[in-house]
Amino acid sequence: MAIFTDPIRDYQGFAPGDAEWLHLLVGDWQMVADLAFADLALWFPLDDGGYVALAHARPSTSHTVFHSDFVGERIRADLLPLVNRAWESQRIESTPDEQCVETAMRVEAVPMVRNGRTLAIVTTHMDMSTPRMPSRLELTYRQCAQDLLRMGTLGLWPDFATPTGSRRGAPRVGDGLIRLDVDGIVEYASPNGVSAFRRLGDVETLEGRSLAEITTPLLKDRRMVDETLPLVVTGRMPWRSEISSRGVSLSLRAIPLRDEADRFGALVLVRDVSELRRREMELVSKDATIREIHHRVKNNLQTVAALLRMQSRRMVSEEGKQGLEQAMRRVSTIALVHETLSQGLAQSVDFDELIARQFRLSAEVASPSHAVRTERSGCFGELPSDFATPLALVINELVTNAVEHGLADRSGTVWLEANRRTDRDGEELLDVTIADDGVGLPAEDFPQGLGLQIVRTLVNSELGGTIEWSAREGGGTAVHLEMGLHNDRCA
Domain 349-491: which CATH class? Predict the structure, then answer.
């Protein structure tokens, strides 16, 4: 299905809601194409007296009569008189029987009328090249299509009360169709519709029985019943509902049938969504399991950090004690990422929230004897866990290094700045700068301790970025990181 909407946007004669009504029609008319066993085309008038095709739908229940897309093209000359008659009369117009025999195609022009004004024309194109006796299913389907199109000429369909949001498992014509009379008695049920209800329970037959009375005994747990179900199974409201029993879930959608006087029946589309719901439950269970794993990893890492802290207190060597404390800080940084992941469903981290705590903590732990201010600016945004963990470790090491070596046992300030930008090739980049107002870079190359070796390894291998040290304007040192945020890694 395709749609060509520019003429609608440019048309000045529409009242409020008219354009939305046509969009609602195109969003739901695949059902009519399937019921009518016909191609549908939506035509809109032009200033010169012609029409342009706004949309085209092909049936999934039959073969198409138009193999090429003609959306955006002008109407053919042989269709123009039929469409003009429908526009003026505001009634459904059909090609004469002799023309149907000659062209092996039946064409109907259906005016879509709202508030007494024709807004567009829907043409139905049904192939008649293979003459045969239609089955009861075909006759019922076509009658349902005629009823819906007739409602379109009265402005009664599509209905703005119909749910428009995407809902997983929404039923289609081929999944199962039940036609009800005004009292909710089943007049016809397609084989797929009957099969769907039989999966729910011991249902002998549907026709001639009230769908509401059939459904009620199948409800084992009344506390879990969808409150919209009674109005859907009686066909009174154009809503969707769901019924579950014995491990089977059916999605139901009602389309009330109306005329000028009142409602005279309804269509109920049925779909067995048991497998979809089972998979959704598996995903929910999987998400809960992943969160629990993150929670347990966090607890285990915190236990490791506590053991390192206890061991460091027993160390006599000052160098050994510092090494264990640094290992403890690194483990705690990783634990913080897993703690954040254990609190949500997504496998991504609000890095700004995470690093705000970690940034202050890293500076405070590294400077127990003197005051160090921390200032943060910019925005990291959402980052996936496999990106957030190494980045948090890198920032922790650089902040610790800035406090211990840059400020050199004196008070000062450490800055953290983050900026996301897009380069000329359209790739999103993340720039991170950690700076201090300390003693600055040494005159000679500074020694590469374990912390800086960890930083270089993580930046190059895990983050796929670059790192540079430079003198900060105004004194001190600035470390600049640049890394790409690939679409398959970043949210």
Answer: alpha beta
Tell me the per-residue pLDDT of 252-298, one tens digit each, with 9 for 90 and over.
999 999 998 899 999 999 999 988 878 777 666 666 666 666 667 77
| Beta strand segments in 158-260, E | 177-181, 186-189, 240-245, 248-258
Q: Which residues pair with 41 in a beta bridge?
A: 56, 123
pTM: 0.62
Pick the CATH number of 2-153 from 3.30.70.20, 3.90.1150.10, 3.30.450.20, 3.30.450.280: 3.30.450.280
Q: Which tokens is 22 given? A: 């046509």
Distances (CA, A) of 341 to 19, 54, 282, 382, 388: 44, 47, 19, 12, 10
- The CA distances from residue 370 to 221, 345, 404, 408, in Å, are 65, 40, 11, 10
Q: What is the pLDDT of residue 6?
A: 54
**Through-space distance between the first and last CA atoms of the chain, rounded to whole angstroms:** 31
**Are the C-beta atoms of 69 and 56 separated by less than 8 Å?**
yes
Given 3.40.50.620, 3.40.630.30, 3.20.20.70, 3.30.450.20, which CATH number is that of 173-272? 3.30.450.20
Reported as a single tens digit per residue, the pLDDT across 448-477 is 666 778 788 888 888 888 999 888 888 888
* Residue 218 · residue 199 · CB < 8 Å: no
Alpha-carbon gap, residue 114 to 89, rounded angstroms? 14
The one-character DSSP state at 475 is: S
Q: Are 270 and 203 in contact (CB under 8 A)?
A: no
pLDDT digits (tens, 9 = 90+) for 291-337: 666 667 777 777 777 777 777 777 777 777 777 776 777 777 777 77
Tokens found for residue 141: 């389907």
Distance CA 364, CA 359 (A): 9
Give the pair of three-digit tokens for residue 308: 């390192």
Unique residue bearing structure tokens 């039929």: 82
